[in-house]
Amino acid sequence: MTVNSLRSSASPKIVAVVGLGYVGLPLSLLFSQKNIKVIGFDEDITRIKILKSGKSPIRHIDSSAISQAVSGKVFFPTADASQLKKADAIILCVPTPLTKQREPDLEFIRAAASKVAANAQKGVLVVLESTTYPGTTKEVVAPFFEKKGWKMGKDFFLAYSPEREDPNNAKFSTASIPKLVGGADPESLKRAVSLYSRVIQKVVPVSSMETAEAAKLLENIFRAVNIALVNELKIVFDRMGIDVWEVVDAAKTKPFGFMPFYPGPGLGGHCIPIDPFYLTWKAREFDLSTKFIELAGEINTQMPFFVVSKVQDALGKKGKALRKSRILILGLAYKKDVDDLRESPALKLMDILERQGCVIDYHDPYIPVFSGDRHFPKLKTKRSKPFAEATFSKADLVLVCTNHSQIDYAKIKKWSKLVVDTRNVLKPDGKKVFRA
Ligand SMILES: NC(=O)c1ccc[n+]([C@@H]2O[C@H](COP(=O)([O-])OP(=O)(O)OC[C@H]3O[C@@H](n4cnc5c(N)ncnc54)[C@H](O)[C@@H]3O)[C@@H](O)[C@H]2O)c1
Fold first, then answer.
1. Residues 148-196: pLDDT tens digits?
2. Residue 140, exposed/middle/buried by CB under 10 A (0-12, 13-18, 19+)?
3. Mutation to probe ligand 1, out of 28, 107, 128, 163 (largest number of atoms < 8 A from CB)
């Protein structure tokens, strides 16, 4: 299959994006920057108000791009689903979390597909971008349209194209990251390739929607397993008195056959801790268990407990116990330079340490207020403490959870009594700075 042979002349004139979050918003802007009209539909009325006023609800997405698209009448944010009838192509970018029982929660996909099916016009192309298990687009999305008596490949066209967004990655943007596309049938594939080719530099067609769904899971499972591996090695090397960061730096000088992954306080973000379990769940239907995924999950889940043991050791060196110690967490976000708290290991650490009787504060330049998290209902609302000597010198220990670039780590070292660093931002000295 070549992209040129798949390009269709009937390219959509109006595109709708359902779900204007980390994935849907940059995608909407990309289409509107190419002068393709975009209806941005989101149920969150507050988010729609922010967007309509030309502001960005996401820190790393520039407000000016939004205000230009809105005032230029190429981007129409709305909470009114009936607007979807105007679109020739509708792209779903809604969340795919896990339930409390750690099973795929497809409620957002179902709700979005139901609204799209109720409002779309015949001949529409529907593309799912949310990360999910192989079979979702055909088994979950298609029936909403088929129930109306519509025939796939004739009355509506269906495709799956995984999002590979890496928020705040300066090297790659939505336009420059190659886009996988799988179609329900040859015509659906042709239309979907044609749609994305208008805004994305390289579109890669694959033979089916299931292949595209599986490829996205492979990418994220690859990361989850390799991060678990390096986290396990961190514990082993730590016991041997070897610095895992130096080991990874040394190993990555090999110009072939090695790819560096770095240890950390645990897995975070909307994707890597969650997506692999979509496959685990689906594999059970085929009487199979996903041992690598489960093992990686176990190791990564244990990492915050390893960090707490290091905090305890460091405090012990100063004759202090965890109970009643003041701990300042530096960085709440799950990764550097973003304001995203989803699944952040810093929250798990905060929870464990508070249960142990520690007094917890935090500093995060991107998260001025922590207003709670559904996974940790006991955590109280907090405000980020200022970046000032008093904030750090008052703490018995500073725990570096996120390596935001704008932090002056030399000052942290100077101001703090003790530091436990999970991100390799300071050199351990065996006296004041320790690794975890
Ligand atoms: N964030 C990333 O870096 C990233 C990267 C690759 C893939 N993904 C995948 O993309 C999907 C979306 O993730 P995200 O990070 O953009 O999520 P998000 O939470 O940032 O945004 C989702 C948006 O969808 C809206 N929404 C939910 N249900 C809706 C409905 N029924 N109708 C209309 N709007 C609805 C929400 O209000 C929210 O604004 C997920 O499947 C995720 O796994 C995310």
1. 999 999 999 999 999 998 877 889 988 999 999 999 999 999 999 999 9
2. middle
3. 163
